[in-house]
Amino acid sequence: MPEATTPPAETTSAPTKHPRYYLDLGKGPAIMLIKQSNVLVNLPLAVLAHRSPFFARWVEDKESDPALGTSCKHAFVFENGTVQDYEALLSFILPLCFDDHRPLASRSFADLKAIYSLTAYLELEQENRACSAPLIEAEKADAIARSRPPRRMHPVFFNRLTYGETFVFCIYKCNVYFRISPSTFAARSHVIGDMLETCSRATNSVDNPVILNEGTEENWIPFLEWCNPLCLEHQRPLSARSTKDVLSILHITDYLDMNDEREACGAELATRGDDPLLSPSHRVWLAARYKLPILLKPAILELLCIPICQLPDEDVDYLDRFTCRHWEQGREY
């Protein structure tokens, strides 16, 4: 009888049987050892041989040596992969329960990597091709997630706001979380109202927040201090706030479509024409960006007195952006 090409398993300690994938089903399945984890599984070799040349060769080996796959001592050996990798793979190719019947697109990036690697190793060509596109998408999503800063609860607008009914919000760009009362903003901003309509109070949490895709912490906190003051220090009118904070509040009120608050910011900025942050070119751009005619005429009159060659590059850039914006909005001014 020819010598088998698959060597018997050699281990330094007794392998353990996998609690889920080692099933005592008589002579049908074959015993296989996940070498890196020293764990045994018991799988239907004949079924797998129809799907993979790798397992078909094991069938040929077993025909040469019938003892292969019949005991722990003569187990077939998986040289690559860990038990966690094989759990991910087997839940896909040999589902044992309803939960295993999940599409690849719903599986984690780690599981998809394991499935892709093992399907290549085990020559499961159809499964390997099926895994390729979901893996690419999961890799992109993972890269985005890893590029974001760590989750952080705002020390004031999350940690101190513990009374009454609140919803958890996440400023996506900086991964900062805060809580607000729906009654505070829903009536003033239909954008917030629409967000809350699609969010269940029962499921809203740090793990399932309302996502805010616009702005940073530097934008949102001045806005929250102004619209939702939690202490005496926060209770300051726009006139007592820095120009940088007023610009942040303007940006968020525009995002939330809070027209009265947006126009209040525009009126305040109109009184600060001598502020270094508000050059004439900048005010022209702000007028176009946020639909604030109150800023436009004084800024243009100032610009007419300045030779273009004396404008800083930043101001030229503002004017370029204004021109594009004005062209898009056409007849508004």
Structural summary, described in words:
The protein is 45% helix and 9% strand. The strands form two sheets. Strands 1-3-2-4 form a four-stranded mixed sheet, with no helix packed on it. The model has no long low-confidence stretch (mean pLDDT 86). Helix 11 runs antiparallel to helix 12 (293-303). It contains 13 helices and eight strands. The protein is of the alpha/beta class and 333 residues long. It folds into three domains: 16-147, Potassium Channel Kv1.1, Chain A (2-Layer Sandwich); 148-275, Potassium Channel Kv1.1, Chain A, CATH 3.30.710; 279-333, no CATH class.
Quick synopsis:
This is BTB domain-containing protein. This protein is an alpha/beta fold and 333 residues long.
Query: How far apart lie the N and C ends?
Result: 94 Å
Q: What is the total domain count?
A: 3
Shape: elongated
Largest sheet: 4 strands, mixed
Number of strands: 8
How many helices in DSSP terms? 13
Portion in helices: 40-55%
Organism: Auricularia subglabra (strain TFB-10046 / SS5) (White-rot fungus)
Protein name: BTB domain-containing protein
Q: What descriptors fit this protein?
A:
333 residues, four-stranded mixed β-sheet, Potassium Channel Kv1.1, Chain A, alpha/beta
SSE order and pairing:
Layout: E1 16-17, E2 30-34, E3 39-43, H1 45-49, H2 53-64, E4 76-78, H3 83-93, H4 109-121, H5 125-147, E5 152-153, E6 167-171, E7 176-180, H6 182-185, H7 190-197, E8 210-212, H8 217-227, H9 243-255, H10 259-270, H11 280-289, H12 293-303, H13 313-329
Parallel strand pairs: 1-3, 2-4, 5-7, 6-8
Antiparallel strand pairs: 2-3, 6-7
Helix pairs in contact: 3-4, 4-5, 8-9, 9-10, 11-12, 11-13
